[in-house]
Specification:
This protein has eleven helices and no strands. The chain is mainly α. It is globular, with a radius of gyration of 17 Å.
């Protein structure tokens, strides 16, 4: 089982390094549907998995100056309080109902939304550029509030399902900051935001008893070399086809979860 978990970690780490897609959208469905892990345990364990895996990326991007700290503060202003509130709601959720009864539908919805966001990322970026160019004052004036709101949505989804910090966060940012965030800053800022969010949410799930540390270790053993290999190979690869394939896969898995409930 440890070998299987490490292989799962390697696969997810490789795809994260190769495409930049968040660990939650890939790891949580894999843990629940293929390895038979309880939904709440899969979410809690994956959150700490993501925070550790992406912390290395923050260090690299920080040294390169590819993090927009102003945008990051706005995202955290919405996401961290939303994460705390979601954890509070999960704490008082009736035990006889079962957390899986809300986590699984939330996971299905989050996967479908993430899939659609990945498919329409380019069009949303073009729409953001158009609005930023034609109505610069009103668009720029709304940016802070919309960024906090986007962070709050991410905080809720990530804490409930562990999905959204990566792919969905990027899509929101390419719309809200079509000119300000260059590709390196887009990726760096998104990863930097994912670390405190997944850490806060993950530690909250530790308090809820939803983290399996015996599972976390093998996942990290596999994910670290996977991220390194995927990152190196991504330089020569066509990301468009791979991201499209992952988006379709996420839509299928999300639909499968929702139809199976």
């Amino acid at each position: 089982m440890d070998l299987l978990n490490s292989l799962a970690g390697f696969l997810v780490g490789f795809l994260v390094g190769f495409t930049g897609v968040g660990a939650g959208a890939l790891m949580t469905p894999l843990l629940v549907l293929m390895l038979g892990i309880a939904p709440q345990t899969a979410v809690g364990t994956d959150l700490l998995f993501a925070s550790v895996t992406k912390a290395v990326g923050v260090f690299v991007h920080g040294r390169r100056g590819s993090i927009d700290w102003g945008v990051l503060r706005r995202l955290c202003a919405g996401s961290l309080p939303a994460a705390a509130l979601t954890l509070l709601l999960l704490h008082y959720f009736p035990e006889n109902w079962g957390l899986g009864s809300i986590i699984m539908p939330g996971l299905g919805v989050a996967l479908v939304v993430t899939s659609l966001a990945m498919m329409f990322q380019v069009k949303l970026n073009r729409l953001g550029k158009h609005l930023r160019t034609t109505t610069p004052d009103s668009f720029k004036g709304m940016q802070p509030m919309l960024t906090v709101a986007a962070g709050a949505l991410l905080g809720f989804l990530v804490t409930l399902t562990s999905v959204g910090a990566g792919a969905l966060g990027v899509v929101m940012l390419v719309y809200l900051y079509p000119f300000r965030l260059t590709p390196p800053k887009l990726i760096g800022t998104d990863i930097a935001h994912a670390v405190p969010l997944t850490l806060v949410a993950g530690l909250g799930h530790v308090g809820l008893g939803n983290v399996d540390f015996s599972l976390l270790g093998p996942l990290l053993v596999g994910s670290i070399p996977g991220v390194i290999i995927g990152s190196r190979l991504s330089i020569k690869a066509n990301h468009g086809y791979v991201r499209s394939a992952i988006a379709v896969m996420l839509a299928i898995v999300g639909g499968w979860i929702l139809l199976g409930i």
